[in-house]
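Co-fold these.
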Amino acid sequence: MKRKNCMLGIGISPRRLPALRRALLAWYDAHGRVLPWRQTSDPYKIWVSEVMLQQTRVAAATEYYQRFTARFATVRALARASEADVLAQWSGLGYYRRARMLHAAAKLVVEEYSGEVPTSEAALRHLPGIGRYTAAAIASIAFGEATAVVDSNVERVSSRMRGAPPNSKDEYWQQASEWLDRKRPGDWNQAMMELGATICLPGKPKCGVCPARRWCVTQGQLSAEKRADSRHKHTVTYLLASKNTKGSKALLLVQRGEEERLMAGMWELPTAESAEADAASVPLLQLKHSITVTDYEVRVIAGTRSRGQGSWVSVRELQSLPFTGLARKILRRLGVLTAY
DNA sequence: AATTCGTGGTG
DNA sequence: TCACCAAGAAT
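Predicted complex below.
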């Protein structure tokens, strides 16, 4: 008779779970990174950090977190800020829908919850931008609710420890719930993610220093599970038009419409007409830029467009505008915008 | 249910 | 150089 890969056959014996919990939590206590959002118990700030960390590395999110929580120190402060201001603070971090939903959720919290962040996973789940993962993360970390999280780290760690990925997404959540340390749910969740982010790496896991090795089936013998996703390719040409007015320099920029599906309301360079693009022999700048599933070949040419859409913006005002990441990259490369 | 959203580090 | 991928959510 063939053995089936059911949960009972492939998981960790319940008898061995307490020791696993102790080992992983001890490792986390001793080796967990000191991160700014781990130094606070403010639910609002933990919420901000969790949204910033959605599909975003710790290294990228850290400085944004510091700036954002300094600028908007409370839910109320965020709620009364303008969307442009919020987007400007988010500029460069990507996935701008997160910023809009966080802003909208902050307003909701002020109006519907008297400015107090909802304290349960179930209530958090109703706020825009808070899905299954984020609701459980905030509830466990900020409020100590005994609820487990599953992110891509937990999926990888869990698959390797079990020896194989489960048959469905839901089994990840079921297993995470079984493994959860219900005395320290927030720390346990962060420990699992920390393990995936620093030890149980996608490419080559550092099994030699892994605190969970005793409980791991694969121990580095990972079955390849890669998929090649086809990417789209596009070429785009932007125009750099500048003029001097009263001794101050201004650039021609365009703001995306509020109804745009992508990056609404954010600023970028005007695109060149095809005739202009063809006529320009030597671009000022040429670079590659990828936006999720599309690879762009970007050219920037000099121009002096006097009519058409766009606004002349003084270079002094540039720092406060919510630029798209591509626009920021271009302006930085051209030396127009100093790094920030 | 499969796609799409941004960006930067990494090997 | 370039494909992979990261504390996911919404549609």
